[in-house]
Amino acid sequence: MRLSFKRLVISVVIGTILLSYTYKRQRSAVQEYSSSSSKPVSMVSRSNNTAAATKYRDHKEENTLTKIINHKQQGHHNDVRLPWSIRRTRYLPNFYTQKHANETKHYSDSTIVYLHHNKAAGTTTKNCLISLATSTKRRIGTLLSSQGRTALDRSWKSQPNRLKAHIYMGGYAFGVCNYLTYKPCSYFTILRDPYERLISSYSYCRRARRDQICSALGANNVSIREWALHQGSFFFQQLLFDPAFCTSHFMKNRTLMAMGGIAHDIVGSDRIYAAPCWFRQKVIMHNALTNNQSEMLLNFCLENLERWFAVIGLVEEYDTSLALLQGVYNVPFKKCATGTAINKSNYLNLHPMEKTTKNDTNAARKETLKQLKLELQRDPLVSKALSADVRLYKKAQEIFERQKRTYRERFGQL
Predict the structure, then answer these.
(1) Separation of alpha carbons 408 and 53, rounded Å
(2) Cα gap 101→85, rounded to integer Å
(3) Residue 365 — left, alpha, or beta (φ > 0 → left; ψ -120 to 50 → alpha)?
(4) pLDDT tens, position by position, 218-264
(5) Residue 249 within a domain
(6) What gap in Å lies between CA 258 and CA 286, rounded to an integer?
(7) What's the CATH number where 357 sits?
(8) pLDDT tier at 394 (50, 70, 90 boundaries)?
(9) Is 218 left (phi over 0), alpha (psi -120 to 50) or beta?
């Protein structure tokens, strides 16, 4: 009898241990799935109760797009965690199209972050911001080139309270609002037809080899088709940027850093560490992501584009874009830049044209642009390379039209 009782006690103890172990395994599996799920979760809005933040909505995307990508390397599986969760926080949503964006003062008092989309009226817009900063006594922060952004990232981690500028700008600016906790923050950008932007970058890089958008491949040594495949969907990459792409974070992973099959001719070196940050990001994403994962990321960007940017402007309607910016920030954007266009390419060095005079240069420019654009659109590989930016641009056009309608309702005619 005693022996049977002892056996019963032992059986109960062992059973309890096994049940506990099974429960922990199941719970761990659920947590692992939740942290790596590929389904984007809608953003959560919340209002702080503190006096400084009651006028500001802090938007968060959950950490659902951080992917663990398995790579086969030397017969082994290596788990590579990409640097982003696509976590963009503490930004004000679109001023004109989001229902809760109804108080102008939140935006006019916010830190302004301009995401410079290269070859899309960037020089004109940056000069405008510099002029406005001077006239309104606002301080401009570090120019967010790749070096400037990584330096800002280090400053934020060591001394977060030092980031007190009123305006930030640059090609690596997206995500900066994450750092700025002392006041509201908002993004704006100016976009351009992806094919026309590509042609402009090709023309520019034939004479500016050391610019960061030009230094990974010599534009003078390749066709415009090869250049298109090299540049790809540039704005899509800007939306996915993280400072980790600019550091040594991935350097030891030869699979991720392999440039085989990706056209390149890096200034000063043929090593990936010497490449500009955007190209390193392109190489890593090319090696790390499947087509399905890239599509998932693109859909996430499309769903959030309107929330991420307080205003989206278009080069094709630049004056209207300035009016929209002025309506949001209550500063004279129209006055400082209307009618100007700096570094405007004429494209006459890209395509065989009949001899032109000064009077018909503009007509020749338009004809050259039209021919080059048609050639690129007919090429299936180029269309695939630019497809993400084309879809983002179409979405931006839809948003732009709705911004204009709301502007007219609030302020009258543009």
Answers:
(1) 30
(2) 25
(3) alpha
(4) 999 999 999 999 999 999 999 999 888 888 878 777 777 888 778 78
(5) yes
(6) 10
(7) 3.40.50
(8) very high
(9) beta
CB 136 within 8 A of CB 332: no
Two structure tokens written together for 332: 């004279």
Cα–chain-centroid distance for residue 147? Answer: 16
pLDDT digits (tens, 9 = 90+) for 333-378: 988 766 655 555 555 556 543 444 445 577 787 888 889 999 999 9
Integer Cα distance of 196 and 192 in angstroms: 7
Residue 402 within a domain = yes
Rounded CA separation 248/275 (Å): 12
- Strand ranges (DSSP E) for 172-331? 185-191, 309-314
Do the beta carbons of residue 119 and residue 204 sit within 8 Å? yes
Residue 413: both structure tokens together: 């005619």
Distance, in Å, from the CA atom of 89 to the CA atom of 208, rounded to the nearest integer, reads 35
Kindly list the distances between the CA atom of residue 34 and the CA atoms of 25, 64, 88, 113, 371, in Å, as whole numbers in the listed order.
Answer: 14, 7, 19, 32, 49
Taking the CB of residue 273, how many other CB atoms lie within 10 A of it?
10
Q: Is residue 82 part of a domain?
A: no
The answer to whether residues 118 and 203 touch, using CB atoms and an 8 Å cutoff, is no
Give me the number of domains the chain comprises.
1
- Give the integer Cα–Cα distance in Å for 391 and 302: 8
**pTM score, whole prediction:** 0.78
Identify the helix (H) or strand (E) that includes residue 127: helix 122-136
